Amino acid sequence: MNKVTLPFSQLVLASNNAGKLKELQAMLGEHIEVLPQSRFISEEAEETGLSFIENAIIKARHASQASGLPALADDSGLAVDALGGAPGIYSARYADGQGDAANNTKLLDALKHVADEQRGARFICALALVRHADDPVPIICEGAWEGRILHAAQGEHGFGYDPLFLVPELGVSSAELPAEQKNQLSHRARAMVLLRARLGLV
Ligand SMILES: O=P(O)(O)OP(=O)(O)OP(=O)(O)OC[C@H]1O[C@@H](n2cnc3c(O)ncnc32)[C@H](O)[C@@H]1O
Ligand SMILES: [Mg+2]
Question: Beta-carbon neighbour count of residue 130 at 10 Å?
Fold first, then answer.
């Protein structure tokens, strides 16, 4: 573990998504004590932004306000070429809040007549870190992960759209990757590399 001097030693993770929390914790846990926002609040921030970045900032401010601590939020989603980038920032709400399984069913249905070569997609992640609720200079880092949408679900790991996301170089879905491997390759991992560099963590 690299010892670094950060301006803070604790960070609230501004997410209610168990899958994300696990991944973010694995990526940051050795450097900083990370606390889930559920320790401080139960209600979710309203994701009213028009971009991943705006929504990440909204969520980070909300958690920081409730906890009095610095907060890190992740706003992420899946952008599918054949759907003009949808579901994008609306990925979590794609099937009107009915959850991951319904989102995946709706996506497969929307693409049922789309050929392999037109099934390109990417996961996108925006991380926003605020030092306090009114921080005028949030730290923003982004990452993307290119892939393709499969015709049926494959794999049991991960969460959300992972069973439908083919990682072309490996020929498997992101739900077939062990957590450690997804955490090296994913949109979230890429954004986190940039964030660690910004914070002076190696
Ligand atoms: O807002 P918080 O509380 O963090 O939790 P959330 O699940 O609502 O998160 P988002 O608003 O950022 O929506 C992200 C959507 O994109 C999906 N998603 C994001 N990253 C993913 C990943 O690594 N693998 C699979 N699906 C992912 C996820 O399942 C959601 O449907
Ligand atoms: Mg959300």
Answer: 27
38 lines ligand 1 (CB under 6 A): no
Ligand 1 atom with minimal separation from the 76 CA: 12
* Domain ranges for the chain: 10-199
How many Å apart are CA 155 and CA 177, to the nearest integer? 8
CA of residue 17 to ligand 1 center, whole Å: 7
Taking the CA of 163 as reference, the closest ligand is: 1
Neighbours of ion ligand 2 (CB under 5 A): 92
Please give the model's pTM, rounded to 2 decimal places.
Answer: 0.96
Task: Report the distance separating Cα 42 and Cα 181, nearest Å.
Answer: 31
Q: How far apart are the C-alpha atoms of 62 and 64, rounded to whole Å?
A: 6
Hey, is 191 helix, strand or coil? helix
Q: What does the block give as tokens for 96? A: 């009107």
Edge-to-edge strand list for the sheet holding 165-167: 33-36, 10-13, 71-80, 120-130, 139-149, 165-167, 172-173
Q: Which residues are catalytic?
A: 75
Index of the ligand 1 atom closest to the CA of residue 93: 31
Does residue 161 line the site of ligand 1, with CB under 6 A? yes
pLDDT tens digits for 9-63? 899 999 999 999 999 999 997 888 999 999 999 999 999 999 999 999 999 999 9
Looking at domain 10-199, its CATH architecture is Alpha-Beta Complex (3.90)
